[in-house]
Specification:
By secondary structure, the chain is an alpha/beta fold. Helix content is 38%, strand content 13%. It contains 9 helices and 6 strands.
Length: 247
């Protein structure tokens, strides 16, 4: 009897939309059922005026018709954590890449950032989304210059929707959300992929997740930054396919 096709959701990060995965999707197994929704107020998704990570997870859960494997990048990874905690029967496995349990540092969480630079990016993205999204992505490719054609291929579709309506609200949600308390209760196996050159979500954030998620494995791509699925796409896709196919 043939195994049913994997049900897979790819969840983008702050200030982006589902087109960020346009290069990754063709690299994944052809028999997977792949969904790439936009988070509220990003891409073509409507914005109700507020952004809440738990509510975004609940909205996603309502779209999932059978247990799914969830890839979350950056903010999308935290949405995936809330999804796994609040709707465990919907989640077969997780892949969290360049993500976090909590973004900002705290006395009991030195892994976070003490002075997030993302706040400065709100004004820049709002001023000229195409220009600053291109600069942001170019920074990710500093250590993978041979992959630059990927950037030129995906950028037009990423920026065609303009700056996300939820730009500030989603950043506020990043600052407020904290998944640490429920990490030990997440039963789904989790693949963690981080970039050694990532200054937004440094590897120490992945190491924290690895210590507190009971069924996790951690890979660090030393020359990747904040978007390893773009800059090291072949390696990333191979790890992801192997992990999800084992779950």
């Amino acid at each position: 009897m043939q195994n049913p096709a994997k049900n897979v959701y790819l969840i983008h990060g702050w200030a982006a939309n589902h087109h960020i995965f346009d290069d990754l999707v063709p690299r994944l197994p052809a028999d997977w059922r792949i969904h790439t929704p936009d988070l509220p107020g990003h891409g073509a998704a409507p914005f109700g005026g507020t952004f809440d990570v738990a509510a975004a997870a609940d909205t996603l859960a309502a779209q999932i018709d059978e247990p799914a494997c969830i890839l979350g990048w950056s903010l999308g990874g935290q949405v995936a954590l809330y999804l796994a905690a609040r709707h465990p029967k919907k989640v077969r496995a997780l892949c969290l890449t360049a993500s976090f349990a909590r973004f900002q540092a705290a006395p009991d969480y030195p892994e976070g950032l003490s002075n997030p630079a993302l706040a400065k990016m709100v004004a820049l993205f709002g001023q000229d989304y195409h220009k600053y999204m291109k600069q942001f992505l170019q920074l990710q490719f500093l250590y993978a210059k041979d992959q630059q054609p990927i950037l030129e291929k995906i950028l037009p579709d990423i920026v065609k929707h303009g700056a996300p309506a939820a730009l500030q609200a989603a950043l506020d949600a990043v600052a407020a959300a904290d998944a640490r308390a429920f990490l030990p209760q997440i039963a789904a196996p989790a693949l963690l992929i981080f970039g050694g050159k990532d200054s937004i979500t440094p590897p120490r954030m992945g190491e924290y997740l690895h210590r507190h998620l009971p069924h996790s494995e951690l890979h660090i791509i030393e020359k990747a930054a904040h978007a390893p699925f773009l800059t090291h796409a072949a390696q990333f896709a191979a790890w992801l396919a192997d992990f999800f196919n084992r779950c």
